[in-house]
Design a protein that fits this description.
Blueprint lengths: L9 H5 L1 H9 L7 E2 L29 E7 L7 E7 L7 E5 L7 E4 L1 E3 L2 E2 L2 E2 L2 E7 L7 E6 L6 E6 L10 E6 L6 H12 L6 E4 L15 H14 L4 E2 L20 H6 L15 E5 L2 E5 L11 H9 L10 E5 L16 H13 L4 E4 L5 E4 L2 E2 L13 E2 L5 E5 L20 E5 L3 E7 L4 E8 L9 E6 L10 E3 L1
Parallel strand pairs: 1-23, 12-13, 13-14, 16-17, 17-18, 18-22
Antiparallel strand pairs: 2-3, 3-9, 4-5, 4-10, 6-9, 7-8, 10-11, 12-24, 15-16, 19-22, 19-23, 20-21, 24-25, 25-26, 26-27
Bound molecules: fe (ii) ion.
Fe (ii) ion (FE2) binds next to loops.
Catalytic activity: a phosphate monoester + H2O = an alcohol + phosphate
Organism: Apostasia shenzhenica
InterPro entries: Calcineurin-like_PHP, Metallo-depent_PP-like, MPP_PAP, PAPs-like, PAPs_C, PAPs_N, Purple_acid_Pase-like_N
Length: 470
């Protein structure tokens, strides 16, 4: 039995000797592998004629609408959409009153080609000088088929600003993806913005990376992405690098469709950047761009971390697609080289939490670091470290590749809780010291928490935390 009274798998019990050693070396609690039993079903993509992929009615109607923060501190929003028949209007009408859209932003429109596919007309427009914590209505498709949406800007950046983030990763467009998104939408603690940890459409699983599946994904997600900002992280399924069909420009569809405000944080690439939202400072890293010493990403992060003012944004959150700590037998050690290079900085600057995807399951770590090794000293095991982040893998959105259900045994001591189920999570910041985190598996009701933890801020309240898994 583990601490919550549940029976652990035999293999976990077999690791008791390792656990005993770990206790001697400073571990106070063994991790748990969930005993939750799910029905094993194949994960299947929704067919092209699914209602969630429906093209909106009307000539040249704007579709695939999505928004993301458009500057560093939340006073701008990037609005993106696609028209299929012709470029149409590139204007966004917007305002704080539904009947008086007195502001106007001009966008840019372009298309791209990928093998034998030509995209629709992709529009991006940045709405600037917005008021904080204000509901804005916006209209696209002016003069042809107007469609109206709305969003709320984040509150003014400050140390005790409450803010709730949704966490979703590796979503894809299967029936399970639809359940994950619906659960997120119906969660009573639904976020005000989504931190998305990479791998979006999984179009690259289709012959010739059929980019029509990028369009269906955009339409599927619109019901959320048009109304609240999603903060994007690039995953391996965004690479779309396919020299066998002449496509040699990495990230081509993603880069054309999903713009992010990377220049506002001094980044030179859309794959690594930062934004401030409420009391949180979000750093997005790129698993599939160079990160070794002297590379642009390395130099950017080296300069970026000292800029974070915890008196302004106490919560320091890192998003990176490929996890650095992962005890599943999938993508094992893929994040290792980046961990070796960046982990000392994340501990030095007391990052609160690192969210990753890539592995199609759920896992939460203890606060641990593995930064003492210097080739000759043999100190190569993770150890408890109150200055280290918690590492959470949330690559369980439900894409067609299915669950990662095979785990390494015994469960490593650094792994606090792991379960191979689809789901999403919520990170609810209360003030500068406390945040409440909960993971929700898709098989449960919308409000049921399958794993939860009170986070204590590493800068303002760096004491030991407690968690609960059911
Ligand atoms: Fe991935």
């Amino acid at each position: 039995m583990n601490r919550s009274g549940r029976t652990l798998p035999v293999a976990a019990v077999a690791g008791a000797a390792v656990v005993a050693m770990a206790v001697l070396s400073g571990w106070c609690d063994a991790g748990a592998t969930s005993a939750f039993v799910r029905k094993v079903e194949k994960t299947v993509d929704m067919p092209l004629d699914s209602d969630v992929f429906r093209v909106p009615c009307g000539y040249n109607a704007p579709q695939q609408v999505h928004i993301t923060q458009g500057d560093h501190d939340g006073k701008a929003m990037i609005v993106s959409w696609v028209t299929l028949d012709e470029p149409g209007s590139n204007l966004v009408l917007y305002g704080t009153s539904e009947n008086n859209l007195k502001f106007l932003a001009k966008g840019k429109v372009h298309r791209y080609r990928y093998y034998n596919y030509t995209s629709g007309y992709i529009h991006h427009s940045t709405l600037r000088h917005l008021e904080y914590d204000t509901k804005y209505y916006y209209v696209l498709g002016v003069g042809q088929t107007p469609r109206k949406f709305w969003f709320r800007t984040p509150p003014k950046v400050g140390p005790d600003v409450p803010f709730t983030f949704g966490l979703i990763g590796d979503l894809g467009q299967s029936y399970d993806s639809n359940i994950t998104l619906s659960h997120y939408e119906l969660n009573p603690s639904k976020g005000q913005a989504v931190l998305y940890v990479g791998d979006l459409s999984y179009a690259d699983n289709y012959p010739n990376h059929d980019n029509v599946r990028w369009d269906t994904w955009g339409r599927f997600l619109e019901r959320s992405t048009a109304y609240q900002p999603w903060i994007w992280t690039a995953g391996n399924h965004e690479l779309d690098f396919a020299p066998e069909i002449g496509e040699t420009e990495p990230f081509k569809p993603f880069k054309n469709r999903y713009h992010v405000p990377f220049k506002a944080s001094g980044s030179t690439s859309p794959f690594w950047y930062s934004v401030k939202i409420g009391s949180a400072y979000i750093i997005v890293l790129a698993s599939y761009s160079a990160y070794g010493k002297y590379t642009p990403q390395y130099k950017w992060l080296e300069a970026e971390l000292p800029k974070v003012n915890r008196s302004e944004t106490p919560w320091l959150i890192v998003l990176v697609h490929s996890p650095w700590y992962n005890s599943y037998n999938y993508h094992y050690m893929e994040g290792e080289t980046m961990r070796v290079i960046f982990e000392p900085w994340l501990v030095k600057y007391k990052v609160d939490v690192v969210f990753s995807g890539h592995v199609h399951a759920y896992e939460r770590s203890e606060r641990i670091s593995n930064i003492a090794y210097n080739i000759v000293n043999v100190k190569c095991m993770p150890v408890p470290d109150p200055s280290a982040p918690v590492y959470i893998t949330i690559g369980d959105g439900g894409n067609l590749e299915g669950l990662a259900a095979n785990m390494t045994e015994p469960q490593p001591d650094y792994s606090a809780y792991r379960e191979a189920s689809f789901g999403h999570a919520i990170f609810n910041i209360k003030n500068r010291t406390h945040a409440y985190y909960a993971w929700h598996r898709n098989q449960d009701g919308f409000a049921v928490e399958s794993d939860s933890m009170w986070f204590f801020n590493r800068f303002w309240h760096p004491v030991e935390e407690s968690s609960d898994s059911t």
